[in-house]
Amino acid sequence: MQLRAAMQAALERLLEHDVPSANLAAELLLMHVLRRDRSYLYMHPEEELSADKFDRYMDLVSERCSGKPTQYITGHQEFWGLDFEVTPAVLIPRPETEHIIETVLDLIGRKGLSRQEKFRIVDVGTGSGCIPIALARELPQAELFATDISPEALEVATRNAQRLGVRDRIEFLESDLLARLLKPESYATFDFVVSNPPYVSHDEISDVQREVREFEPRLAWGDLARGEEIYERLFPQAWLLLKPGGCVVVEIGYNKKDAVLRLLVEGWQHQEVRPDLAGIPRVISACKED
Questions:
Q1: Nearest to residue 286, comparing CAs of 276, 266, 277, 275?
Q2: CA separation (Å) from 286 to 138, 141, 246, 257, 282?
Q3: By CB atoms within 10 Å of each CB, which of 19, 42, 142, 197 scores lowest?
Q4: Distance CA 18, CA 217 (A)
Q5: Which CATH number fits domain 77-288: 3.40.50.2300, 3.40.50.790, 3.30.300.30, 3.40.50.150?
Q6: What is the tens place of the pLDDT at every residue in 47-60?
């Protein structure tokens, strides 16, 4: 069967099962089977696909039809232009989370600082490690820490850092939020505390996509009583670690802006909200009072 026909067969099956972004899934799964990029598919549409590879391809399509995210099937997801390994132990990196990186870089620029300075940064709930690894690539002199309560997630993050050439720049810590760093010698020594924490409440679970609800680690995305609990614990810890003028930068849920801002009043200044490309409030930053 030719590549064009194989991809069409896959697309039809994906559409029958109402798979979101079916075209993209059909492409990515065929790219994975062939170990080729997207351009190859369209430059060689008449290439013959062997029976074994077609069967393998359709097996993967069936997995996707079951609801399993494409990224868990291929084991890869792009973030900040970098290729990350992902497994069911970690949340799949989303484009919206790139706004955390943008916010940190923007704050550095607005402070009149150079990206070459020796910033001290910690990412809380690092998952795949996408945030600290992206920051390490953008800030070549930064000293980075990354915490997660899940040892399995830390294994994935460590492998990503190794493969992307920044393992020696990031210290990975198994920790409940910032607990491992809450020592007097670490107080007031950090420039940034960043996080994409769990924020989905019990009442919102029915609104969560099936792929997330059934396949991504609930520990990483929520199922909390209200949705603000992690921020309530994180911000006092971050305040202790940040230097005067240091900033906390966090991702928030679509309806969490007001609740999170209410937690960033006493002891904080320069609170800002950054929307995503759809105009939804996505990232909040605030700086410790000087």
A1: 266
A2: 21, 23, 8, 13, 14
A3: 42
A4: 23
A5: 3.40.50.150
A6: 999 999 999 999 99
